[in-house]
Write a structure and sequence with these properties.
Layout (H helix, E strand, L loop, with lengths): L6 H4 L12 H10 L4 H8 L3 H7 L11 H11 L11
Helix pairs in contact: 2-5, 3-4
Length: 87
């Protein structure tokens, strides 16, 4: 029997935003938000290839900023402290 963990509970509050997000975390959050790579690139003002580099392991200097990553977590409903509400 497989158990699923809640990403919100797995985040350590002190370290959740203290380092650049790993590419795998960016990809998982994008998918959780229901965005394609092109849609994410458009939302954050990047070209498609630039966004793809943010999701590639080993890419240097291409991580999302803290604010961008937190916004992506908000869009995905995964932010540990805040939620977005529709108007």
């Amino acid at each position: 029997m497989s158990t699923k963990t809640n990403p919100r509970k797995d985040m350590n509050e002190e370290t959740a935003f203290s380092v650049a997000p790993m590419p795998e975390a960016v990809k998982a959050a994008r998918k959780a938000a229901g965005l394609t790579q092109q849609a994410a690139a458009d939302r954050f003002g990047y070209k498609l290839r630039s966004w793809q580099r943010k999701e590639e392991a080993g890419a240097t200097g291409t991580a999302l900023s803290q604010g961008e990553y937190e916004f992506l977590l908000l869009l995905a409903g995964l932010h540990p402290d805040y939620v977005l509400n529709s108007r």
